[in-house]
Write a structure and sequence with these properties.
The protein has 113 residues and is mainly α. 78% of the residues lie in helices and 0% in strands.
């Protein structure tokens, strides 16, 4: 009889953590550190955008970023070399897409499709 307990594959958990981390870390470090201070001070007349500014500009979001960083740091040492390479590859790809998102907004580009 199976106990119903399941174990988490550290490699898969690490991939999930870094995919999430790439997004929230970029929001925190690029979006809010570079342009966010002005956004927090100025705000937005658009209620939806103002909610977004408040959510990602608040200290609670910073706590979330630090928590996910800690999870990724804790999972890292237990990864096999192939898992570590996979995690790095996913983090780099996701970070590039996040950077492109922010750059597109900064340049006021439109979606080409």
């Amino acid at each position: 009889m199976r106990s119903g307990r399941r174990t988490v594959n550290p490699g898969r958990a690490a991939v999930l953590a870094v995919l999430f981390l790439a997004i929230i870390f970029t929001i925190s470090e690029v979006g809010l550190q570079k342009v966010g201070k002005e956004l927090l001070q100025r705000g937005s007349p658009n209620p939806r955008y103002q909610k977004w500014i408040g959510t990602y500009g608040g200290e609670e979001f910073g706590d979330t970023v630090r928590t996910v960083l800690a999870v990724a740091d804790a999972l890292g040492p237990g990864l096999a070399p192939a898992e570590r390479a996979l995690v790095h590859r996913h983090f780099r790809a996701t970070s590039r897409y996040e950077w492109m998102f922010w750059d597109m907004g900064y340049r006021k580009e439109t979606w080409p499709v």
